Amino acid sequence: MRNSDRLTPRERRLLRPRVIAGQLIRAELQVMQQRSLERLRVVDEELDRLLRERLELGDMLRAVRDGLGTGNRYVPRAPWPAEVDAVPEGTVEVRGAELRAALRAVLASVGEPMRIDELHRGLLVRGLRAPDPVPKSISDALRAEVARGRVDRLGRGEYVSAA
User: Fold this and answer.
1) Chain segment 98-124, per-residue pLDDT in tens
2) Domain spanning 82-161, CATH architecture
3) Whole-model pTM?
């Protein structure tokens, strides 16, 4: 709110609950009402302008997305060979807070966006594994981290460290 939009000390006194007598006070209150209505109209016009601009930007972004060729559909990546996802012997299953901390550590060490299958391999390299079903337990753990602001979700199954 700008300083010119704030109430003056006299206007604040006029708004105190009390018996209002006299035409002078009534006229001042009517002026305050008109001034407030005018400010409200200006704010509404600005809000309408910003809304139109936001809708135009959304249309532009959709056109750019469609121009890039992915459209509005999810295109899964090709799966890795099964032997890559094999769980090595001697890995320790982690759950809850330990799983969340391990996933944060994997994301922080890489420093770039990672998909769930890449995070799973990152855990396996460190001698850890998520409980079955692995993709669901990893995404559930990351959902909690996204809610806490420690991890950012970039898209379906893609995450990056927020730090």
Assistant:
1) 999 999 999 988 888 889 988 988 888
2) Orthogonal Bundle (1.10)
3) 0.49
